[in-house]
Amino acid sequence: MRKQVFGRQFKRDTNERKALFKGLASSLVLHERITTTEEKAKAIKGHVERLVTKAKRTDLRHAQSLLEPYLTLEAVEKVLHDIAPRFANRPGGYTRIMRVGRRFNDNASMVFIEWVEKSAKIKDQRSKIETKKATTSADAAVATAMYGGKEKKAAKKQKGKIAKKVTKKKSAKESK
Question: What DSSP assignment string belongs to 136-165?
Fold first, then answer.
């Protein structure tokens, strides 16, 4: 009987389970978002949040010695220098779990587990993508204005101009 036994076994012995949690937690820290089963995500969520709280509350050396048994060395560095300062003003709730669907193979419920606040690097990447989208939509607006709102004709004319430029460059290279 399992009376008052906390945690999930996942049909693994203690060392296998610790290795699984260490790998999942390190992957979450390094990649900032992982896809896993719902049960594994729920099992590591509290584990990871406790590690971030330890990193926030203590000095660097002490926190490093506390985190080393539970994370890889790269992950410990990232927690101490990137993730813990990001959540300095937040009292808890550092991760979120979002359902994705079911895995085709065994119908297991799959989820994303990720940090609630994104890093500045990820925000920069998203802003670059948004500016690219804005410039392409601006180019499309200019093309529709030039050609009287007929988008298909405008796109065909632009493709034709690009093709002419490419053939001119090829012929110039061949003549040299």
Answer: HHHHHHHHHHHTTT-HHHHHHHHHHHHHHH
Q: From CA 114, how far away is CA 34, in angstroms rounded?
A: 7
Q: Quick check: 61 pLDDT over 70?
A: yes
Query: Tokens standing for 127?
Result: 């802003």
Q: CA gyration radius for the chain?
A: 26
Q: What is the model's pTM?
A: 0.68
pLDDT digits (tens, 9 = 90+) for 116-154: 998 777 666 666 666 666 666 656 655 555 555 555 555
Burial of residue 94 (CB within 10 Å: 0-12, 13-18, 19+) is: buried
Domain 14-117, what fold?
Answer: 50s Ribosomal Protein L17; Chain: A, (3.90.1030)
Distance between CA atoms of residues 84 and 88, nearest Å: 6
Cα–Cα distance, 42 to 168 (Å, whole number): 60
pLDDT band at 79 (very low <50, low <70, confident <90, very high): very high
* Packing angle of the helix pair 38-57, 14-31 (nearest 10 deg): 70
109-115 and 95-102: which strand pairing? Answer: antiparallel
Domain assignments of the chain as residue spans, ordered by start:
14-117, 124-175
